[in-house]
Amino acid sequence: MKNTLRVLRAERRWSQAELAQRLDVSRQSINAIETGKYDPSLPLAFKIARLFESRIEDIFDDEFIVGT
User: Fold this and answer.
1) What is the reported pLDDT for 29?
2) pLDDT class for 44, splitting at 50, 70, 90?
3) Contact status, residue 59 vs residue 48, Cβ threshold 8 Å
4) Quick one: three-class SS letters along the chain?
5) At residue 66, does pLDDT exceed 80?
6) How many CB atoms neighbour CB 11 within 10 A?
């Protein structure tokens, strides 16, 4: 799943560790979400959206292109 988490984090000059602490998850989880290797649970997605004062769909894009 594509997402804008890295951009949102960078705009605030937060490290992955700082964001992880704010969300009460590991830094490795943040890295995996940012690189698209892990999709967050729905509760975590809501927590991320609240932290960035955004809607989930503004941060996460569930569309994918077939054949790539």
Assistant:
1) 98
2) very high
3) yes
4) CEECHHHHHHHCCCCHHHHHHHHCCCHHHHHHHHCCCCCCCHHHHHHHHHHCCCCHHHHEECCCCCCC
5) no
6) 10
Phi, psi dihedral angles at 13 (to 5 degrees): 60, 40
**What is the CATH number that goes with domain 2-58?**
1.10.260.40
Task: Say which residues have a Cβ less than 8 Å from residue 36's Cβ, sequence separation at least 6.
Answer: 1, 2, 3
Domain extents for the chain? Answer: 2-58
Ramachandran angles phi, psi of 9, nearest 5°: -65, -45
Enumerate the β-bridge partners of residue 2. 61
* 43-60 burial: b if 16+ Cβ within 10 Å, else e: ebbebbbebbeeeeeebb
C-alpha 68/C-alpha 53 separation (Å) is: 32
